[in-house]
C-alpha cells in the first residue's frame, strides 16, 4: 500500500495484480509484453486470466511471474470464426460476472490484500477495477476498447433485459485512476483520464531467413499465414485456393482437420511473431494482436470483417491508414477465391513507422503510478466515441420516469464522428445560384433540373471531384470508398442521377400495414444515387471481380458494382459487386427467397440488398433484363436507425436511377410498391408501404395523405402556414427489422383473424336462428355488418365503436404462436412468420391501428379547419394519444418518452393560453427508439423552444439530438438527371 504522502520509495520491488480477459489471444500477447518489462524491472506480477499458460511461460521464465487461472469476464461468444452471437454474449457475461458479482468482489478484494498488491492492472476486466477500489488499491486499465462500448449495441438489438450490464461495466471502469490507451482505440467514455502509448507488440526472436530454413521453405516461395483464432474447423480448404507456388501456414488448426499439401499446420504454442516475420502476407480476422503485429512487421494483412464486433472499424481504419490492409469479401473467403486478394497484398508497401515500444512505455507508467506519480492526460475525458455509445451507457439503465445521476466525466464526452453520411463535399451553406453555375462548369445536364436543391448541387460537385481524382495522383490520400468511387464510372458516358428523401411520420405510423390513413412529410435529408450502364468490356472491374470472371471463364460478362458512402458510420463494407448472372437460374430470375439468402450470408454486405435488390424486383415484376454492366454510387444524408426511412430513400432513389438509365418510366406509386417488395422479400423487413410512398410521391412542405389498402394516394395536404413540424432524434437506434416491430405486426394480424373468425361465427349463428333470434341482438343490419366484418381485409376498416361493442371481449391480451396456429392455422400475413414458441401481445396490437385510423382522419380534418388555439391543442392531443398507444404495444423507448415529456413541459409551462408554441409530439415510424414528431406554431419562439428541448435532453443524457426541419420533393417530383462530363463533351467537340 502507498505511504501517507502517496509515494513509495523508488527502486523498491512492487507487486502488480494484472487481470487479463480470456477473450482472444491478443489481450494475452500484449499483456505478456507489459508483464515482461515489469518483471525485468524487478517487480512481482500476479497474472489473473483464463488464457493458456504457454502464452506467458513461453516468453517469461521468472519466479516473479505468478499465474492464477480465473475467468472473470467472457468477452464475446462467437457462433463461428466471423460471427458474434450478441444475445449469447450478454447472457454469458451475466452468468460469469453479474450473478456471482458479490462473491467475486469479496474474493478479489481479499486476495488483493493478501498479496499486498501495489497496483491493479486490467486488460480489460471490468470487475477487477471495482474490486481494487473495494480493497483500497489504485487501478489502471490498459486497452484499446472497453466492454461497455462493445456491449451497448448488443443490448439494444438482442438483449434489452440485460440493459443494466452496460452501465455497471462503465461504473466499474470509472474506478480506474486512468486509462493507458493503445493505438487503434475505440470510444471509451467511462475513463476520466487517458495516456496514449505506442503499439504494444511482441518482437520476433529469429530472422526471416532462420525461420524459413527451419521450416524448409525456400526464399522463392510466397507464404501466407492464416490466423482465424483456430476456428477453421469445418472449412473445406482446397489446394487451388492459393496461387501456384504459395504455402499457407495455418494457426491453431484442430488436430482432426485434414489439410491440403500446400496448407501446413503450425504448432499450438508456436511463437507467431517469428512466423509472421517469415511470411509475405497474413489472412485473418482483425483483432488488436494480429493488426498491431502486422503493422509492426510491415506485413500486408488480408482481412475479412466479423459480424457485430464493434472494435473492428477502429483497428481497420488504422490498418488502412498505414496502407497495410486488403479487405476480402466473405463469400470469396468461403469459396476459396483468395488469389486476387493475396496477389494484391504482396504489392502493398505498409507505411507504419511509429513506435513499437508500447510494452516498455506502459510498464514504466504503471511502475511510476505504483510509486505514487499522478498521471493526467491533456485531453478531455472520453473525447472519442460513436454518437450512440454514450446515451446507451446510462439511458438503458434509467428507470422510466426518473433520472439517474450521470457523472460529469461521462456526460462531457464529445461526439467526434459526423452525424450525416452524405457525399463528402463542402457544407451546404452558401449561395445556391453561385454553385449552380459551378455545377454547370462540370457537367452538361441533358435531362432534368436540380430544382435549386443544395444537396443535389453538392452531390454533382462530388461527382466532379471524383472525375478529377480519377485522372490525378491523389488517390493515396483518399479513404477507400472514395478510391473505389473514383474508378466506378466511365466519364465519357452518360450518368443518371435520382434523389429520394427520407420522411417524417407525422401520424399513421405502424397502422399502415393494417390499412390506415397516414400523413407523411418528406424531409430535407435525402439519398442520391448515380447509375451508369457500361458495356462489360469497358467497365473497370475491381481486381477480385476480374479474377472471379477469369476463374469462371466468363470474361466481359455483366457485373454490378456498388459503392456506398458513409460505410464507416455503420461498420459495413463500402463496396459490393456481383455477376448479374447470379440473379438468373435456368433463364429465369431467381426466387425472392434465394435472393434474400444471397444477401444474408455476410452481415457487412447485407446493406447491398436495399440497392441490388431493386434489380431482382425489376426483373421479376417488370420482366426487365440487364445485358450491360451497372455501376451504382449511393450517397445518403438520411441517417440510419432514426425512424426517418433511410432504407426507403435508398430503395426509391436506386430503383428510380436504374429504371431511368434503362429507359423505363415507372410512376411514383408503382415505384413505391416495387420498392416495398425489395424491403419485404429481398431484405426481409416486414414494413408497410407508407415509407416508400412518402419518399416517391411526396412534395415539399406538404403532407402526403394515403390509405394503405394497399397504397391509395388521396392527395397532398397543405401544411397550414401557422403550423410547423419538427423531428427530434432520441439517439436510440431503431430498426424496422427488429423483433419488437415484427411481433406487434403479427399481433395485429392475429387480432384481425380472431375478429373475422368471431364475426363469421356470429353471422352464421344469426342467419341460422334468424326466425327465433332476438331482433335487438341480431337485426338485419347487424347481420350485414357481421358478414362484412367476417371478410375484413384491413383491420383499420373496423370502426372503433364496433370493436368496443362486439369484439374487444373476444381478444386475448396475449397468445402463444403455437396456441394461435392450432386454432386458426394462419394469420394471413405474407411478410411475417409466426414463431410457435413466442408469446404475442394481441389486444394492444389490434387496438392501435383501429383507433389510429380514426385519429389520422380527425387530424386531417382539423388541419383544414380554421386557425385557432383549439385547433392546435386538438391536433397535439391526437399526437400524444398516438404516442401512448405505441407504448401500450411495446414499441416505446425511454429516449422518445423523455423527449415527449420535454415537449409537454414546455407546452404546460406557459402562463396564458395565447402564449403556446409547442402542442404535441409522438414517436414515429416503427418505434422502439428513433425520432419523435413535434407539432408547433411556425414562429421563432417555437424554434427556440425546440433548441431548448435539444439542450435539456443533452443535459440529461449527454447526447445532443439532431433536429430534422424543412422539407423537400419526393423522387417522383424530382424525376432524374441525365448528365455528361463537360470536360469530355468539350473534348469530343474538338
TrEMBL record:
Name this protein carries in UniProt: L-arabinokinase
Domain GHMP kinase N-terminal, residue spans: 610-698
Highest taxon of source: Eukaryota
GO molecular function annotation: ATP binding
Pfam family, one: GalKase_gal_bdg
Chain ranges of the Galactokinase N-terminal domain: 489-533
Alphabetical keyword list: ATP-binding, Nucleotide-binding
One Gene Ontology biological process: carbohydrate metabolic process
Stored InterPro entries: Galk_glycosyltransferase (IPR012369), GalKase_N (IPR019539), GHMP_kinase_C_sf (IPR036554), GHMP_kinase_L-arabinokinase (IPR053205), GHMP_kinase_N_dom (IPR006204), Ribosomal_Su5_D2-typ_SF (IPR020568), Ribsml_uS5_D2-typ_fold_subgr (IPR014721)
